């Protein structure tokens, strides 16, 4: 079976995805490198929001928690429960990774629905949520792939690769291709849903009065949160599967 050529083609397809563009984009040219500036700008804004919120919430913890402290403790407990459910008793070291993925995607998705990015004029292109760009979602998916490979190898060593011939060596091609399709499905699911939501809102705003698309915007907030939860849940499930073995 042509496993190696097929795998190479899949990897090349992942690389080529980075060239996909919807609309016009704003770039920075640094030497021979072309950097997707609008994604970096909005990503920095999201990271600043997250860091600022955490610093404000934990800089002066109270014995009797404030509303903000209660909120962040609830978020942390939610991420711990999610990680424990999907990974198992060895979930502890993976809480920061799963939490970072969930919070970054959640705030990125909501920023596209709440922040008026498009009123900021750029020389070319326009600002949008970081997860509205395929480069961001592919990067997050590849990080997830690296995480579950690391989890499996760190626990089982080279015996981790035995999963590819279980329950029968006949399934070797399918088991190999499964690891290449996981980042594809993760990245396209997130990218497609966020892009579609923002496009629908933009079209409705251009066609009807501003008040009419508000229900659609609220629906977008809900689906944005669900997409962040799905991504984090699948990431934790893949890590748990790599540590436990093939199911």
From TrEMBL:
Which keywords are on file for this protein? ATP synthesis, CF(0), Chloroplast, Hydrogen ion transport, Ion transport, Membrane, Plastid, Thylakoid, Transmembrane, Transmembrane helix, Transport
Which molecular function terms from Gene Ontology are attached? proton-transporting ATP synthase activity, rotational mechanism
Per its UniProt record, what Gene3D superfamilies does this chain match? Answer: ATP synthase, F0 complex, subunit A
What residues form the membrane-spanning segments?
Answer: 35-58, 94-114, 134-153, 190-212, 218-239
Entry GO terms, CC: chloroplast thylakoid membrane; plasma membrane; proton-transporting ATP synthase complex
Q: What is its main location?
A: membrane
Question: How is the subunit organization of this protein annotated in UniProt?
Answer: F-type ATPases have 2 components, CF(1) - the catalytic core - and CF(0) - the membrane proton channel. CF(1) has five subunits: alpha(3), beta(3), gamma(1), delta(1), epsilon(1). CF(0) has four main subunits: a, b, b' and c.
Functional note: Key component of the proton channel; it plays a direct role in the translocation of protons across the membrane.
Q: Of which family is this protein a member?
A: Belongs to the ATPase A chain family.
Query: What NCBIfam families would the database entry show?
Result: ATP_synt_6_or_A
Q: What is this protein called?
A: ATP synthase subunit a, chloroplastic
State the species of origin.
Bambusa multiplex
């Amino acid at each position: 079976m042509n496993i190696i050529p097929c795998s190479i083609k899949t990897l090349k397809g992942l690389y080529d995805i980075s060239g996909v563009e919807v609309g016009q984009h704003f770039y920075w040219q640094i030497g021979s490198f072309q950097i997707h500036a609008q994604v970096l700008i909005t990503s920095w804004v999201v990271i600043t929001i997250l860091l600022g919120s955490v610093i404000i919430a934990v800089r002066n913890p109270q014995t009797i928690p404030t509303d903000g402290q209660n909120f962040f403790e609830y978020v942390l407990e939610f991420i711990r429960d999610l990680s424990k459910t999907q990974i198992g008793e060895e979930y502890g070291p993976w809480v920061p990774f799963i939490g970072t993925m969930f919070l970054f995607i959640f705030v990125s998705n909501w920023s596209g629905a709440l922040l008026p990015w498009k009123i900021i004029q750029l020389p070319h292109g326009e600002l949008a949520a970081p997860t509205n760009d395929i480069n961001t979602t592919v990067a997050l998916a590849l990080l997830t792939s690296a995480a579950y490979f690391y989890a499996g190898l760190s626990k089982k060593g080279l015996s981790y690769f035995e999963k590819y011939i279980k329950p029968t060596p006949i399934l070797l091609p399918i088991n190999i291709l499964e690891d290449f399709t996981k980042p594809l499905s993760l990245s396209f699911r997130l990218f497609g849903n966020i892009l579609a939501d923002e496009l629908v809102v933009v079209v409705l705003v251009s066609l009807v009065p501003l008040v009419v698309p508000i229900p659609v915007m609220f629906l977008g907030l809900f689906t944005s949160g669900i997409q962040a939860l799905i991504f984090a849940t699948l990431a934790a499930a893949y890590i748990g599967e790599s540590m436990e073995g093939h199911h």
